[in-house]
Amino acid sequence: MTPPPYAVCQGVLMAKKSGGKSKKAAKASDDQKAGDQKIKTGSTDKSTLTAEDLPYRPCVGIALFNDEGQVWIGNRIGFEGAWQLPQGGIDDGETAEQAALRELSEEIGTDKAEIVAETPDWLTYDLPDHLIGKAFGGKYRGQKQKWFAMHFTGKEKHIKIDVPHPEFDAWRWTDFGTLPDLIVPFKRPVYLQLVEIFRDVPQRIRNLGTA
């Protein structure tokens, strides 16, 4: 970026005072100052931002199953047909398990669940190009998620989406295998993996009811 006129003048004066510092040396000094300022302010030119410049946001996701082996799914507020499972970021000092139980309470108003399985690895997805530098405050390229399968141990009256900071405006139970067809395209690869990893969970939970 071309420095403003006063910066150029300042550079010339500095060169004279230093006994004729070369233009190359003066430019190097100015470049160093600009770099230091960028580090201090954390500024980034979002017009040239690419996914490779950004990290993944650590996150958890929850597949909550009822006694019939169906999974809970909610529609995001303001986006008709934008169905997804509960998910959210991991706070400082939290384990992934703690974050998953907290997010369940914050997003659908219940703590009546027990963890029955988790993904062995983190699953990642990238934001579409038009959302890079915009979604997640412009800080992340996408999310890396640790997913938990949970058995819902309460009754439907214990699920409340009218929480202080609501995420969903509707919800329902659905067949676990149909999830990838309901999700926005850029999240579909994660949900395909999730259905495969947790493929035996619905039957395991149904078996609990007949044991």
TrEMBL record:
InterPro entries xrefs: Nudix_hydrolase (IPR020476), NUDIX_hydrolase-like_dom_sf (IPR015797), NUDIX_hydrolase_CS (IPR020084), NUDIX_hydrolase_dom (IPR000086), RppH (IPR022927)
Keywords, in A-Z order: Hydrolase
Cofactor: a divalent metal cation; Mg(2+); Mn(2+)
Enzyme class: hydrolase
Domain Nudix hydrolase residues, every copy: 55-196
Residue numbers covered by motif Nudix box: 88-109
Pfam family, one: NUDIX
CDD domains with a match to the protein in the record: NUDIX_Ap4A_hydrolase_plant_like
Assigned EC number: 3.6.1.-
The UniProt record lists the keyword Metal-binding: no
Compositional bias annotation for Basic and acidic residues: 27-39
Highest rank taxon of the organism: Bacteria
Start and end residues of each stretch annotated as Disordered: 17-47
Known function: Accelerates the degradation of transcripts by removing pyrophosphate from the 5'-end of triphosphorylated RNA, leading to a more labile monophosphorylated state that can stimulate subsequent ribonuclease cleavage.
UniProt record similarity statement: Belongs to the Nudix hydrolase family. RppH subfamily.
NCBIfam families: PRK00714.1-3, PRK00714.1-5
Protein name (database record): RNA pyrophosphohydrolase
Phylogenetic lineage: Bacteria, Pseudomonadati, Pseudomonadota, Alphaproteobacteria, Rhodospirillales
